[in-house]
Amino acid sequence: MKRQGLASANTEKRFSQIYDYLLERIRRGEWKAHEKLPSVRVLAAQFHVHRLTVFKAYQLLKQHGIVYVKDKSGYYVQPGGSLSFDPDHDPIISAYVQDSHLSEIHQVEATYQFSKALLDPNLLPNLYFSAYVKRVFDLYPKVLGTYSMTQGDEELREALCGYFSEEYRFYLSPDELLISCGSQEAIDLIARVLVKPRDAVLIERPTYSPAIDLFLREGATIVPVEISESGYDLDQVEHLMQTSKPRLFYLNPTFHNPTGYTVPAEQRKRLVELAQQYHCLLVEDDPYRDIYFGDKPPLPLFSYDTTGTVVYLRSFSKYVAPGLGIATVACRPAIMKLLIKAKSLMDSGTPLLNQKIFLHYFFSDRMQQHLEKLRIALCVRKEIMEAELADTDWQWTSPAGGLNVWAKLPESIQMERLLAACIEQSITFVPGSICDPLRAMQSWLRISYSYVNEQQLREGMRNLVRIYRELS
């Protein structure tokens, strides 16, 4: 039995090598769309394996939409597959660069920016912020001549530990926090260290678009989980954990991006129990927690975790000081060691000056008081957007927090035509398809009410609705 087990393990290892070999060469553009791939016989001889092992690798690539088969001819590269690149791209560059669909939209200059889920700079106490920058230089005169620790400034991590403990009943030490340059870097680190090619990754449908891109870059098999106004279907989640055996579940349960939904407290506790039972990490992304328009949201999933099942990402850059780009990762030591090692290969730590400014700015009484004013201002903008949509035939659920409205248009409208026409009129929004792991949801769009002022919001929404009606 032992010899049989070793043989089985060796076969699986060779299968993985063949799959990864084919996948990487396709990703690098060495084989182009419709180009014939090496035959099963040739690869079996090259890797000294049974032909069935090569056949299984090709079948999995076919299942993932990366190759297709012609009867009695062989396997070919699938055009437009999830890992194919523009043939005009340099294959060496395309081996390392993954397209970011959201970034492409953000790079479009527009007067009415409804695509950016960021804060209007005029909503921040900028003069007060400037005073704190000067204070930091007085307190730390050598701050510009000093690198941060890779894990992050210890003084900031200690302050955050106290904050999390008091606000959310987190029990952790400063060694269980890492300071990153925004939550997107944190997701990138997690994808790099925890996900291998062919690992199943559960992702909400819809979700934060760059997360899809980052996990696909690592060769993950994306398994969608539907999210609705009432949260998740936990029977579906348990079934997927049983059958797909996912490495992790990336989720955004509080004022979800893009939908604005919030998963209820009772589901959060059960999710942690399911994750513990099926050995699936929960990666909880929590960028909008302080932006609520009524009651405070339920406690994070991390509050229910006692076994290290949850990795918690908390970004402050959306609404505190986007220019500082501060986020933190909370997790237990085994994963933290991997994240620190990966970050040390990327940079020498999040800039120390940014961390010190954030430390004194965020925890000040003035900033905490300003958050209440900020919530009121954003709620007013949300109501302006919804008032402009009231006479349309669009469908949406009014969000209880966050920065976005997720709206469904009649299926007769072509979203690509609408976006192109809007860009011509200096309006941007996020088409729902790029938020969908299945790249469907063609009738949905995300419009953010946080980045433009109230006058621009009214003008831009009226123009958007006018363009929609002209195309209908």
Low-confidence stretches: 1-7, 82-98
Largest sheet: 8 strands, mixed
- How many helices? The count is 16
Helix content: 40-55%
Based on CA atoms alone, the radius of gyration comes out at: 24 Å
* Average of pLDDT: 89
Structural class: alpha/beta
Shape: globular
Major sheet strand order: 4-11-10-9-8-5-6-7
Strand content: 5-15%
In whole angstroms, the N-to-C terminal distance is 67 Å
Q: What is the number of E strands?
A: 16
Features:
disordered N terminus, about 475 residues, 16 helices, 8-stranded mixed beta sheet, 4-stranded antiparallel beta sheet, globular, alpha/beta, single chain
What does this protein look like?
By secondary structure, this protein is α/β, with parallel strands linked by helices. It is 44% helix and 14% strand. It is built from 16 helices and 16 strands. The protein has helices at 2-27, 40-47, 51-63, 91-94, 101-106, 126-139, 154-168, 183-194, 209-217, 234-244, 265-277, 333-346, 352-362, 365-389, 415-424, 454-471, and strands spanning 67-70, 74-77, 112-113, 177-181, 200-205, 221-228, 231-232, 248-251, 281-285, 310-315, 326-330, 395-396, 404-408, 427-428, 430-431, 444-448. The chain has an eight-stranded mixed beta sheet, sandwiched between helices. The chain has a four-stranded antiparallel beta sheet with strand order 12-13-16-15, with helices on one face. The protein is globular and about 70 Å long. Mean pLDDT is 89; it is low at 1-7 and 82-98.
